[in-house]
């Protein structure tokens, strides 16, 4: 005997996976409202890791196939924007694409930082397709320890 009786209800995929409806709704929302530009989804490219130290933030972004000159970084208060462009490869006039999965065109990703940063002290390095950015908190915004005097 089956654990659950077989019916039209139990054969419904939403009965077996209660989150399927939410994923489908999220996919439809993304298709309708997430802006796309020449193949890049604005919300998720490039893939980013970010961590915070005591007075700084470190960030890495994966940008395979790009050159350092293709990447632009802008910082304003607590917002970091990474943007750039990848040109389409030049192929012969009579070439026919059989598979084309690497997007080309412009991209931009804006990330809100956990605190204001000093735009003058930002350091960026690009090596082996990975962009590394280090951002410092301004000295005037750093927490200060206040000595308590006894009366």
Structural class, from helix and strand content?
alpha+beta
Spatial shape? flat
Helix residue percentage = 10-25%
- Biggest sheet, open or closed, and with what strands and sense? 4 strands, antiparallel
Mean pLDDT, nearest integer? 81
Instruction: Give the H and E element order.
Output: HHHEEEEEEEEE
Low-confidence runs of at least 5 consecutive residues: none
Write down the Rg. Answer: 24 Å
What fraction of the residues are assigned to beta strands by DSSP?
25-35%
Number of helices: 3
How many β-strand stretches?
A: 9
Side by side, the strands of the main sheet go 3-4-9-8
N-to-C terminal Cα separation, in Å? 80 Å
Structural account:
This protein is flat. 15% of the residues lie in helices and 33% in strands. The mean pLDDT is 81. It has 151 residues and is α+β, with helices and mostly antiparallel strands. The strands form three sheets. Strands 3-4-9-8 form a four-stranded antiparallel β-sheet, with no helix packed on it. Strands 5-6-7 form a three-stranded antiparallel β-sheet, with no helix packed on it. The chain starts with 7 loop residues before the first helix and ends in a 15-residue tail after the last strand. β5 (71-76) and β6 form a beta hairpin. It contains three helices and nine strands; from the N terminus they run αααβββββββββ.
């Amino acid at each position: 005997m089956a654990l659950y009786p077989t019916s039209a209800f139990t054969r419904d995929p939403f009965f077996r996976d209660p989150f399927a409806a939410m994923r489908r709704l999220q996919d439809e929302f993304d298709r309708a409202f997430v802006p796309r530009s020449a193949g890049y989804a604005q919300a998720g490219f490039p893939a980013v890791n970010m961590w915070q130290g005591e007075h700084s933030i470190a960030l890495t972004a994966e940008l395979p196939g790009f050159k350092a000159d293709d990447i632009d970084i802008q910082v304003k208060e607590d917002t970091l924007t990474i943007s750039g462009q990848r040109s389409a490869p030049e192929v012969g006039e009579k070439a026919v694409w059989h598979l084309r999965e690497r997007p080309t065109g412009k991209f931009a990703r804006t990330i809100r930082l956990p605190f204001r940063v000093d735009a003058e002290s930002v350091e960026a390095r690009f090596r082996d397709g990975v962009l590394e950015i280090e951002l410092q908190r301004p000295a005037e915004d750093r927490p200060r320890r206040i000595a308590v005097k006894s009366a």
